[in-house]
Write a structure and sequence with these properties.
It is built from seven helices and ten strands. It has helices at about 40-50, 90-100, 105-115, 130-145, 160-175, 190-195, 210-215; strands spanning about 1-10, 15-25, 30-35, 55-60, 65, 75-80, 150-155, 180-185, 200-205, 205. Helix 5 links the parallel strand 7 and strand 8 (about 180-185). The chain is globular. Bound molecules: adenosine-5'-triphosphate and magnesium ion (MG). Magnesium ion (MG) binds near residues 41 and 42.
């Protein structure tokens, strides 16, 4: 499993939101992107997910060029900003709908993934009554339930309480697999140092080199 970015630049309305990024991600560990608000963490995730395409440079996923050989990565799960679910359905019903689209998931799988993220599969509350932390947990469940090869989690511990943070860290660690790339973003550098095996510091759309980071 490999994601290779070569000289990737994204320009939006004259501003370079990603600047000449060259980086190779490989399966088997957790990558963590850290940096201040607005440094480009979410943009990096969007571009890897094929939600936006580079203005210049290229992205290859297992050798296939994104936007050319493939429109989207073939196996991906993502949580980016506020997860969108149907308000009048329960958590279970929402995942069930997504599972229908993805295929290959049993009801037991859905109950299992809900339990994994600390939600009760029997909870009859509809999504609109969910707290922020519950919404975030359901978002993580949706991102990981299809056991995708690429998992992108943007600020996964946003709005999660202290006990929950421990739980979520454990869940993310449990996802590590040599054929899977896990990329998380967090503006809290300390948290990122703790959660990620490899920290990627970003600033103003660029990935900083080790010397720049320390200097
Ligand atoms: N739709 C958009 N149109 C134009 N510029 C945008 C758009 N979305 C984001 N940007 C700009 O792109 C840059 C990177 O934004 P991005 O959302 O990737 O930052 P971030 O590192 O995820 O920040 P945060 O920690 O606040 O989530 C910022 O300068 C932002 O203003
Ligand atoms: Mg962001």
């Amino acid at each position: 499993m490999e994601i290779e970015l070569t000289n990737v630049t994204k320009t939006i309305k004259g501003a370079d939101v990603l600047k000449n990024i060259t980086y190779t991600f490989r399966g088997g560990c957790i990558y963590g992107v850290s940096g201040k608000n607005g440094c480009g963490k979410t943009m990096l995730m969007r571009i890897i997910a094929g939600l936006i395409y580079p203005s210049s440079g290229e992205i290859r996923i297992n050798g296939k060029r994104l936007g050319k050989d493939i429109s989207f990565p073939e196996s991906i799960g993502l949580l980016i900003e506020n997860p969108a679910f149907l308000p009048d359905y329960t958590g279970y019903e929402n995942l069930k709908l997504l599972a229908k689209v993805q295929g290959g998931l049993s009801d037991a799988d859905i109950r299992g993934v809900l339990q994994e993220v600390g939600l009760d599969p029997e909870d009859k509350r509809k999504f609109y009554k969910y707290s922020l932390g519950m919404r975030q947990r359901l978002g993580i469940a949706a991102a990981v339930m299809g056991r995708p090869q690429i998992i992108l989690l943007d600020e996964p511990i946003n709005a999660i309480d202290a006990d929950g943070v421990e739980e979520i860290r454990g869940i993310i660690r449990g996802l590590i697999h040599e054929d899977r790339i896990i990329l998380i973003a967090c503006h809290d550098k300390e948290e990122m140092d703790y959660m990620a095996d490899i920290v990627i510091p970003m600033s103003e759309g660029r990935i900083l080199s080790e010397t720049e980071e320390k200097g």
